[in-house]
Automatic annotation (TrEMBL):
<feature type="transmembrane region" description="Helical">
    <location>
        <begin position="61"/>
        <end position="80"/>
    </location>
</feature>
<dbReference type="InterPro" id="IPR051791">
    <property type="entry name" value="Pra-immunoreactive"/>
</dbReference>
<protein>
    <submittedName>
        <fullName>RDD family protein</fullName>
    </submittedName>
</protein>
<keyword id="KW-0812">Transmembrane</keyword>
<feature type="transmembrane region" description="Helical">
    <location>
        <begin position="101"/>
        <end position="120"/>
    </location>
</feature>
<dbReference type="InterPro" id="IPR016795">
    <property type="entry name" value="UCP021697"/>
</dbReference>
<dbReference type="InterPro" id="IPR010432">
    <property type="entry name" value="RDD"/>
</dbReference>
<feature type="domain" description="RDD">
    <location>
        <begin position="23"/>
        <end position="133"/>
    </location>
</feature>
<feature type="transmembrane region" description="Helical">
    <location>
        <begin position="28"/>
        <end position="46"/>
    </location>
</feature>
<keyword id="KW-1133">Transmembrane helix</keyword>
<keyword id="KW-0472">Membrane</keyword>
<dbReference type="Pfam" id="PF06271">
    <property type="entry name" value="RDD"/>
</dbReference>
<keyword id="KW-1003">Cell membrane</keyword>
Length: 139
């Protein structure tokens, strides 16, 4: 078998433009937006036992939980998180169908673990996307 010329070729996706694989720059930008939103929400609505906002106490569990909630709530409704949509990405199943409800949960939990997200295949799909059967496409 020959090596694919570009990410997504094996999946029958175009090399660039709408429907092509979402590249790393857009993915990282979306991640920063979503974690930033979780960080802000933690500061606004969650306080630690001393009465300080969770952001100041540095509670990573609260911030990670809010990040997962953002992913799980928005992915089925908007075909991606707010960060994905801002950066022109959309989340889809590998076969093109609706992602459903359980895939965003699996994907987000693995994404928070970090390691599955930084191990990619030749199509630039992280292990979190492979496990959930999802793919990030340009939108």
């Amino acid at each position: 078998m020959t090596e694919p010329r570009y990410p997504g070729e094996r999946l029958g996706l175009p090399e660039s433009g709408r429907g092509s694989i979402g590249r790393i720059g857009r993915r990282v930008g979306a991640l920063f937006v979503d974690y930033g939103a979780a960080y802000i929400l933690a500061g606004l609505f969650v306080t630690d036992p001393d009465g300080l906002p969770a952001v100041f106490s540095g509670d990573p569990v609260v911030i990670a939980a809010l990040f997962v909630a953002i992913q799980v709530v928005f992915a089925p409704m908007l075909q991606g998180s707010p960060g994905h949509r801002i950066f022109g990405l959309r989340l889809a199943r590998a076969d093109g169908a609706w992602v459903g409800l359980w895939r965003p949960i699996v994907r987000a939990l693995l994404l928070v673990l970090v390691i599955p997200a930084v191990i990619w295949d030749s199509d630039q799909r992280g292990l979190h996307d492979k496990a959930a059967g999802t793919i990030l496409l340009r939108g």
